[in-house]
What does this fold into?
Amino acid sequence: MTPSGAAPIAIVSAMQEELAAVLALMPDERKVTIAGREFWQGHLHGHDVVAVLARIGKVAAATTAAVLATRFGVGRVVFTGVAGGLGAGVQVGDAVVSSEFLQHDMDAMPLFPRHEVPLYGRSRFPADADLAAALVEAAREAMPKARVHRGLLISGDRFVSTTAEARALQAELPDALAVEMEGAAFAQVCHDFDLPFAAVRTISDRADDAAHGDFLQFIRTVASPSSAAIVDALLRRLPRS
It folds into this structure.
């Protein structure tokens, strides 16, 4: 913790381009390597910040979340990145802020209902309401021409990139706004550690047959600067405690 007693804020991305844009905002970052990951400690708008590349997928995300909780003692966790749009009206270039998270590939039937996380008695983990609300306002400020949605984000260990897969998810989870590969794992670990967590995702594609398109170019030219702008706006809004 800081001398004032305030816990650091974790800023997490899954792609290197997004993390680089966030690091460019931090004037005094220093690197610490733990569990094969580079954690960058610094300051932004008066906040102690730990920025890290989570890597891709739920296991990598869970490892990163556990290290943030146990080794850095962070007090809040924010994930920025890209996702495939699923919900009606959720289009490329929009932002989706989490209200809750679910693993769409969790299936321990017949022992537990589909999507339910075994021994938790739930399939959905809520985002922190205050942090999510702040992310909505930050996204609206940072992306004034984009629509900002708030709702269910679903995660799984596969890149959803066919129209058939997208339609199957839409039919099974009609309230899902977007699909990605890390958020639900972070939400579960943060639940275990009683850590406020929320995520914002820029929509890079519609998770359909065209999803392979210009994915990396979109990250470099749209998602990366958007992530940095949202983080900048968020940390200007959050109280320093």
